[in-house]
Design goal:
The complex is a heterodimer of chains A (41) and B (142).
Chain A: E1 3-8, E2 11-16, H1 23-30
Antiparallel strand pairs in A: 1-2
Chain B: E1 7-10, E2 13-16, E3 30-32, H1 34-40, H2 47-55, H3 64-80, H4 87-91, H5 102-115, H6 120-141
Antiparallel strand pairs in B: 1-2, 1-3
Helix pairs in contact in B: 2-5, 3-5
The chains are: A alpha+beta (41), B mainly alpha (142).
Chain lengths: 41, 142
Amino acid sequence: MPKHSFILNGGRVHVDCPSDVRLLWVLRDLLDVPVRNTAAA
Amino acid sequence: MVCKACTCLINGQARQICGIPVRRLGHTDEVITIEGLAESVGKELHPMQQAWLDVDVPQCGYCQPGQIMDAVGLVTEIHAKGRQVTAADLDLFRNECRCGTYPRIREAILQGAQAMGKPAHHRHDKKRRRRKHRRRAAHQHS
């Protein structure tokens, strides 16, 4: 599985997933970035 | 057409991440989500988030993170060109809000844009004035 690395909200993250997975799914499902529904976030 | 609710900043530019494959991100690429927006300016809230609260924009809230992130991207881009946000710029702001809060969104973007600072050429003018003032002061002392 390809490894991907980038900076997310100021911190480096690494993720192993197929290269065509969309970033939204990477953040939400693999990196557990919470889903926010308010402006105050 | 996409709803743009997932908009994030990638290297400072607003992007819809539901359409970007992870392979497009390199080692040095920086992604900022709504969760990291305030921290990116070292404050409790980003000026655009504060404007959103001041104008009381959200209704159901579903689209709001995307609206704010896209607004920050738009204002940053316009300020980099050295000009202020205009009504024509806001007409091109196409994030969908099913509650129809568009008048408040427009108001908040203008307020947030002011709080985010002046366009690049204004900042340069200020620097130029400061440099000129320093030169004049040095000349008077010599």
